[in-house]
Write a structure and sequence with these properties.
This protein is of the alpha+beta class. It has one domain. The chain is 34% helix and 34% strand. Strands 3-4-2-1-5-6-7 form a seven-stranded antiparallel beta sheet. A hairpin with a 4-residue loop joins β5 and β6. The radius of gyration is 20 Å and the shape is elongated.
Length: 152
């Protein structure tokens, strides 16, 4: 009987040691995903620009800096309101959070269309890629570092 109690005690300790952190981790990622859905439902900013810089933050995701050609807004910065966000716009410059940083080259054109919820990448005046809005999957980790790397 005492051996069974020891095994049961060890199982409870393991559950507490691993179970609670795992629960918190998965709740955090669910929260980030839900925030993304809410964010994109209300995201109503369209713009286009020429890629002038790109900086990797983690695992192929990073920040692309654009010189804006056209934009539906003069300024856009929701970093204080949202944990995750797609872009920051100030002074005719946009910093865009990108999952597919490896596709981007300097002097490419990027079109962010909030009505279609898509990004289009043009190179040498022809469409290279098009994809739905998407933010990095481990948003909490990513944005911790991305916020340090913003220049705007």
């Amino acid at each position: 009987m005492t051996r069974l109690l020891k095994i049961f005690g060890i199982l409870i300790l393991l559950l507490l040691f691993f179970g609670i952190p795992l629960k918190l981790y998965f709740n955090r990622n669910t929260k980030s995903y839900n925030n993304q859905n809410i964010y994109f439902e209300h995201f109503n900013v369209s713009f286009s620009g020429i890629v002038k810089d790109k900086e990797q933050v983690s695992n192929g995701a990073g920040i692309v800096t654009l010189d804006i050609i056209t934009s539906s807004v003069k300024e856009y910065d929701v970093r204080d309101e949202y944990e995750t966000y797609l872009c920051v716009i100030k002074n005719d410059i946009a910093e865009v959070i990108m999952n597919r940083l490896f596709l981007i080259q300097l002097d490419d054109s990027l079109v962010i269309d909030s009505k279609r919820k898509k990004m289009d990448l043009f190179r040498n005046s022809s469409l290279k890629e098009s994809w739905d809005f998407q933010l990095p999957t481990n948003a909490t980790f990513f944005y911790t570092f991305a916020r340090w790397k913003h220049k705007l």
